[in-house]
Amino acid sequence: MISAISNLSAEVRQYLLVTGNYWGFTLTDGALRMLVVLHFHQLGYRPLEIALLFLFYEFFGIVTNLVGGWLGARIGLNKTMNIGLSLQVIALLMLTVPASMLSVPWVMAAQALSGIAKDLNKMSAKSSVKQLDKAKVDGQVEGHLYKLVAILTGSKNTLKGVGFFLGGALLTLAGFAGAVWIMIGGLSLVLLLSLIKLKEDLGKAKRKPKFSEVFSTSAAVNKLSAARLFLFGARDIWFVVALPVYLSSEFGWDHWAVGGFLASWVIAYGFVQAAAPWITGRRSGKHPDGMSALGWALALTAIPALIALGLDLNPQLILLGGLVLFGVLFAVNSSLHSYLIVSYAKEDGASMDVGFYYMANASGRLVGTLLSGWMFQAYGLEACLWVSALFLLITSGLSLALPRHQA
Question: pTM of this prediction?
Fold first, then answer.
């Protein structure tokens, strides 16, 4: 296996290393999310209080994406990726203090570092794909780029689902502190390999961009970023806090069941993301545009509304069946957006446009997370689902303005 890897081109080896870094980070990120939600729910925290634990995680993700793209263009994506891995190790170490010190402000601070780490890692990985695909951009290469982005994004989300399951399992088997120490050990090995092997000039712009250039001047990037904000707000408004707490409180599921189900959902979601190029027509030689994004967004809009309408009839069947449909359609929407931003991003300093786009992504998650805790606590799951449908309708309207292929 080692000889087979050594025979690959330098670009492919770097792509595999970047993907491996992304995978290792994602496992700990998914596990940590489930650990925090389930552990603090077990301690008696209310849904809004649990949502507030992630406030800084999402807020600093917004700041990080805005600044991180500029930083990656100046110092190289290898450095921003390794900084992200290091910060995640520090964030995990902060959670190893005695249980009496795990106050809400302390956990929020640890989550702030984790949010910075996650978005540095994601921005670096997605921007690297643009840099590692050296071929001239034409129809064939656009399809190849779509495939690379779909594989990276889909595999990440599959492993995030494994992380959800891992978090629930480790909490049961090793306790909160033991689970955190296991993740620290694994991620430290990933960081060491990355420091040794990742190429030093990856993604560094030929011209040093000014900080004033962090806001994108591309109309296509700005419109796609706005659509992304509402897309992810629509997911997280019922998925982050409302859904796991509802499954636990209304259906009586234990940690294993909640963690296992959400893990299975995200794993399947990741597989669909990776297959998105084939689902959306790559086999026929087509690659997606703004019209593709509009069609898939409209299809997704109906799902949370239908779940909300049928929730009183048979809650388990309607909710779990609706989640399957939502997962498939959301995965395709997310993969389309991930491809479009890499395609729209400028060649030199792609991390600037990608960082701005993921800043909007983090803004959507922040809005969705806060609304998930507040609306579920005040009005229940149905209200979360109706606002999700409204956000998706806005996503569809914004997608109308995205560029389309010329006839």
Answer: 0.70
